[in-house]
């Protein structure tokens, strides 16, 4: 069994003249990221490895989520995650070493949402319905995958354990 956590960056800003890759978080995103990090820790979802898109908003999301929480590992940047479609995200996951039991990816839509839809084959109906309606910024899906090795990741191998968004934790965060 492997656990995959898919974390969409928190709410970003788009200042005039700024290219997409350099977009920072909006104030709402800066408030939400630490809430999500604390939730990861409080719920015992601590990953063995974190892979982050190198875009400013994803790097900032993980930096704020993990700030001061020494139990959360630093993020490893992988340029393939930026604006990646589901198949490329899956390829990155399949390269993960077998000793990693829990992997967390910090990325972007539509790739994160598409990958989640592809991998999830079961789980609580209410959580799956919620996920199918929208994967908002700051959304975090926890998926248990019935595989022995990351290389075996396949469609419908996962069971959705939970789907949490920042507003579930604080009405002003998202």
Automatic annotation (TrEMBL):
<protein>
    <submittedName>
        <fullName>Phosphoglycerate mutase</fullName>
    </submittedName>
</protein>
<dbReference type="InterPro" id="IPR013078">
    <property type="entry name" value="His_Pase_superF_clade-1"/>
</dbReference>
<dbReference type="InterPro" id="IPR029033">
    <property type="entry name" value="His_PPase_superfam"/>
</dbReference>
<dbReference type="Pfam" id="PF00300">
    <property type="entry name" value="His_Phos_1"/>
</dbReference>
């Amino acid at each position: 069994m492997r656990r995959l956590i898919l974390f969409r960056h928190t709410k970003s800003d788009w200042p005039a003249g700024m290219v997409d890759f350099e977009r920072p978080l909006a104030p709402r995103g800066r408030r939400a990221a630490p809430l999500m990090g604390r939730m990861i820790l409080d719920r015992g979802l601590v990953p063995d490895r974190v892979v982050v898109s190198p875009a400013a908003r994803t790097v900032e999301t993980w930096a704020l989520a993990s700030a001061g929480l020494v139990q959360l590992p630093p993020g490893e940047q992988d340029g393939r995650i930026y604006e990646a479609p589901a198949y490329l995200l899956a390829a990155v996951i399949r390269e993960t070493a077998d000793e990693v039991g829990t992997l967390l990816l910090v990325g972007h839509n539509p790739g994160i949402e598409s990958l989640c839809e592809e991998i999830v084959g079961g789980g609580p109906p209410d959580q799956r319905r919620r996920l199918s309606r929208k994967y908002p910024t700051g959304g975090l899906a926890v998926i248990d995958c019935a595989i022995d090795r990351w290389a075996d990741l396949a469609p419908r191998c996962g069971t959705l354990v939970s789907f949490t968004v920042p507003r579930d934790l604080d009405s002003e965060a998202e």
